[in-house]
Amino acid sequence: MVWSPADLIWSLTNRAQLTVFEAICANLFLALIASMGITPLYNLLKGNQFNVRGKHVYVTGGSVGLGRGVALELAKHGAHVTIVARKEAPLKETVELMKKEAAAAKNPFEQKFHWISADVTDKEQAIRALDEASVHFGGKVPDIIMCCAGTSIPKLFVEATTDEFEYQMKLNYFGTLYTVHESVKRMVETGIKGKIVLTSSTMGLVGFAGYSSYAPTKYALRGLAECLRNEFLLYGIGTHIYYPGTMFSPGYENENLTKPLVTREIEGSTGLTPREAAKGMMAGLRKGQFTITTDFDTNFLRVAGKGVTPSTNIGLDYVLGLIAPFGATWFLWETNIKVKNFGKKLLKNDI
Ligand SMILES: NC(=O)C1=CN([C@@H]2O[C@H](COP(=O)(O)OP(=O)(O)OC[C@H]3O[C@@H](n4cnc5c(N)ncnc54)[C@H](OP(=O)(O)O)[C@@H]3O)[C@@H](O)[C@H]2O)C=CC1
Ligand SMILES: CCCCCCCCCCCCCCCC(=O)[C@@H](N)CO
Question: TM spans, by residue (predicted)?
Fold first, then answer.
């Protein structure tokens, strides 16, 4: 008797009937495979969950690196964009690039591109920048806030100063917080169902030698994003967090000046261009993902450290979750060995 999908498939092959045990296993297996289709199917039905066309998007750190990549993607897809950073020259340059991007995309309406010079670690300046951005939109707060400004000063713990710890927390965490806090207050006051996007890092999911002053700032953003995702359901505001791996940006060039050799060895040298990363980030946002990753390792770490967060793909997250502990153990061992070997070389004064 055919009583389940697995029996049906099996009966088509004209073999002997499945035993009950075989049928249970085969059906579970089929259910697992089918579950991998649930999220893609849901996303297909939902369509684009991050439509930026005609929206005003505010990008901190939008002058170079990831932020510039994001700004250009936004320009291409029909958004009005305000970018914020400190140095004027790269800001102006990015505005010109956005104009070119929009012209090439032939969007059938005029897009507004503005730049604002402000230091987001300064509360007053962060608020002033939001005010200035709103001026061109009848005083309305931007619809979408994307926080990309951040920095990393990799060093061995004992070689880093506590000022460096404080500075990175001030920029990566509080620099994000000031902007998000002020803009969400305004969204709530004016009933805007906006979106908030934070930028963490692979180092917001794993920690190893050289990143003790940086990884905690990115873990802090994870904590913030998890609370806000839940709380902002109150207002219909969406919260998302991107965990990029290495991006070959000006910031990356700069951090390599202080990066200990062992840190370089552990993190390897593969990465994406900021534009590629921005494209991947936008793709995740369109699918409505809460946690966005754009490389294999970080996706693995996302699953290994999933905690209590929404799935990116229900079935696939489950299967990857079964393998992840093995990958994590392997990485742990390999990293321990790298650090111990580095220690031996240090003792012999080889480096
Ligand atoms: N590059 C990488 O490998 C990775 C980076 N990340 C994260 O991604 C984000 C972007 O990185 P990346 O593109 O490399 O960064 P870059 O250093 O290349 O660019 C940083 C941007 O932030 C701006 N910025 C820096 N400080 C301030 C400030 N105080 N106020 C306002 N704007 C500021 C910079 O402009 P200005 O200096 O003129 O102010 C610039 O526009 C960061 O949060 C970073 O931590 C995560 C994983 C990997
Ligand atoms: C489940 C187990 C899988 C383990 C794989 C782990 C791989 C770790 C690679 C680390 C790459 C670091 C990139 C981010 C660096 C960064 O944020 C700075 N460059 C800041 O600018």
Answer: 20-45
Q: How far are the Cα atoms of 179, 231, 289 from residue 58, in angstroms, in the given order? A: 10, 22, 20
Alpha carbon distance 262, 62 (integer Å) = 31
Task: For residue 108, count CB atoms less than 10 angstroms from its CB and return exposed for 0-12, middle for 13-18, buried for 19 or more.
Answer: exposed
By most ligand atoms within 8 Å of CB, the mutation choice from 171, 202, 247, 298 for ligand 2 is 202
Report residues whose beta carbon is within 6 angstroms of any ligand 2 atom: 152, 201-203, 206, 245-246, 251-252, 255, 267, 297, 300-301, 304, 324, 327-328, 331
Closest residue to atom 17 of ligand 2, CA basis: 201
Sign of CA dihedral 251, 252, 253, 258: positive
Cβ neighbours of residue 171 closer than 8 Å, sequence gap 6 or more: 120, 121, 149, 150, 151, 217
What residue ranges in 61-138 does DSSP mark as E strands? 80-85, 113-117
Residue 131 tokens read as 């005010």
Token readout for 279 is 């494209």
Ligand nearest to the CA of 179: 1
- Number of the ligand 2 atom closest to the C-alpha atom of 300: 1
In the residue annotation, 87 being an active-site residue is answered as no
Task: Please tell me the total number of residues recorded for the chain in this structure.
Answer: 351
Reported ipTM: 0.98
Question: Closest Cα to residue 203, out of 244, 239, 168?
Answer: 244
Per-residue pLDDT of the chain (351 residues; tens, 9 = 90+): 556 888 888 888 877 777 888 888 988 998 888 889 999 999 999 999 999 999 999 999 999 999 999 999 999 999 999 999 999 999 999 999 999 999 999 999 999 999 999 999 999 999 999 999 999 999 999 999 999 999 999 999 999 999 999 999 999 999 999 999 999 999 999 999 999 999 999 999 999 999 999 999 999 999 999 999 999 999 999 999 999 999 999 999 999 999 999 999 999 999 999 999 999 999 999 999 999 999 999 999 999 999 999 999 999 999 999 999 999 999 999 999 999 999 998 888 777
Single out the residue of 194, 182, 172 nearest to residue 125, CA to CA. Answer: 182
